[in-house]
Write a structure and sequence with these properties.
Elements lengths: L1 E18 L2 E13 L9 E7 L3 H7 L6 E11 L4 E10 L7
Antiparallel strand pairs: 1-2, 1-4, 2-3, 4-5
Amino acid sequence: MQFETTIVVLGAKASKGEYNGRPFDSTKIFAQAELQEGENFAGFVSTDYTWGTSFNFERIKGLEYPFKAKAVMQIVSNGKDSKTIMLDLIPEKTAPKA
């Protein structure tokens, strides 16, 4: 199931290389998430999403953080567990960092 949502991007991290002979290449997006309501909870935390390869990091590394963006997400499952993956990230109008 695909859906779009607006998120606040707090940061991003690219990972590319080789580990035990196996190549890896990904971008991790850190986004703001609300804490669940409750007596002992208040405020926000960050949650992370994998967003394709390190090429995607190059697309946003020069932006001023944090920024708002439209995220295209998909919920996938292996039949037992489900997770949300990011298919695309489209920043709202933001200026490059000075």
